[in-house]
Amino acid sequence: MRPEPLSSLEITFLILGMAIITGLTRSFFVFLGDRVKVPELVLRSIRYAPLAAIVGILAPELVLPPGALEISQLDWKLPNIWGGIAAFGVYFWTRQMLPTLLVGMAVFSLVRHWI
Amino acid sequence: MRFNPFVSKLPYWGWTPLQQGAWRDGLKTMSTSAVTIFSWALVTGLAMGKSPLSTEQALAMSLFVFAGTAQLAALPLIAGGFSIGTILITAFVVNLRFIIFSVGVQAHFSHLPYWRRVILGYFTADFGYLMFTNRFTEVQNAQERKADGYYRSHFMYGLACGNWTIWQTGSIIGILFASQIPDSWGLEFAGTLALIAVIVPMLDHRSARWAAGAAAVVAVLAYSMPFKLNLTLAIIAAIMVGILADRSPKGAQ
Asked: Into how many domains does chain B fold?
């Protein structure tokens, strides 16, 4: 069963909420001022949390087919994996977005149509 | 330019030549990274244009949210039917780095009025913050600021204006261009590719690589858990593994 898509009202709230989060995080210590000291453990956690969230979103996107419900559907012929590996390599060497996009999409399309 | 009482109240036209010069300096400094910002924005726009969002929704997200990584992270979650609450928490977590930036915004601009600081914070994204702190590492006190002929605040406004304009141009072109590309090309994958590029520079030390590995394994193994808890578990696991790897003898290399 595919999950229910968000309604357009929900999307509106989501966009508003994300805009507020942009302002809240970018002005966090403007709001707090100098009164509050953040504990060392929290600052350490902050270093890994964004990386973890992005990897947590990416990993299933790369190794599971769209709409998969369980890990038994893990499939090495999936074009996402190979496109992803190619993009990782290109960005690692060039640090540039457009070549990364072009090579990633090219490998993704090749695997999708010929394997 | 000070003859007209209305014009003299506007930003830029109402400023002194020194302030105007600092603003243009900021704009010029930001334009040195125009190609990089533009290409990231273009790819983010393409991914938004090919997502379940309508063109209007994608444009609104680009204009108001103005946080590319959080937008890219939200797209697969919107497509995957995650709840608004989960997507908002994820956007917050992805934006945590800005909290660290905000320490700098507060320290450098504590002399500005409160609301101006809040608005400046909203418009201070990665490029603006890094360019400002690269140029001005030390915070000025009130006397140093008076003695200095250079307006750092107006330099920062210039950076922000440049960053916003370049980003929105690329993003809007991407959103509008995406509708001209057939769905069969699978271009929604562009968002995934951009997120891969986001994480590459973060993997520059050992404990970050351990944390990323933990997040990937947990997110996939726990994929079938109810309420899409896999993402939350992946974040918790990665933080724990990251801190443990930091503490091990070989840590932080």
From this structure: 2
User: Which residue in chain B has the smallest CA separation from A79?
Assistant: B189
Q: Measured between CB atoms, does B182 come within 8 Å of chain A?
A: no
Q: Is residue B191 part of a domain?
A: no
Same structural domain for residues B78 and B151?
yes
What is this model's ipTM? 0.90
Question: To which residue do tokens 């290409």 refer?
Answer: B39
Do B180 and B208 reside in the same domain of the chain?
A: no
CB pair distance less than 8 Å for A55 and B199: yes
What pLDDT, in 10s, does the model give residues B27-56? 999 999 999 999 999 999 999 999 999 999
Q: Which stretch of DSSP H or E encloses residue A100? A: helix A97-114
Domain carrying residue B218: 204-253
Residues 6+ away with beta carbon under 8 Å from B101: A26, B124, B126, B129
Residues 85-124 of chain B with CB under 8 A from chain A are: 87-88, 90-103, 105-106, 114, 117-118, 121-124
Taking the mean position of all CA atoms in its chain, how far away is CA A42? 22
Interface test with A, best of B44, B99, B230, B233 (most A CBs within 10 A): B99
Rounded distance between C-alpha atoms, residue B200 and residue B53, angstroms: 27
Say yes or no: B129 and B223 in one domain.
no
Kindly report, residue by residue over B67-106, the tens digit of the pLDDT.
999 999 999 999 988 899 999 999 999 999 899 899 899 9
Pair B180, B225 in one domain: no
The partner residue sitting opposite B81, judged by closest CB among A5, A95, A96, is A5
Q: What are the tens digits of pLDDT across the range A20-45?
A: 999 999 999 999 976 777 777 787 77
B70 and B99 both lie in a single domain:
yes
Q: Are B35 and B169 in contact (CB under 8 A)?
A: no
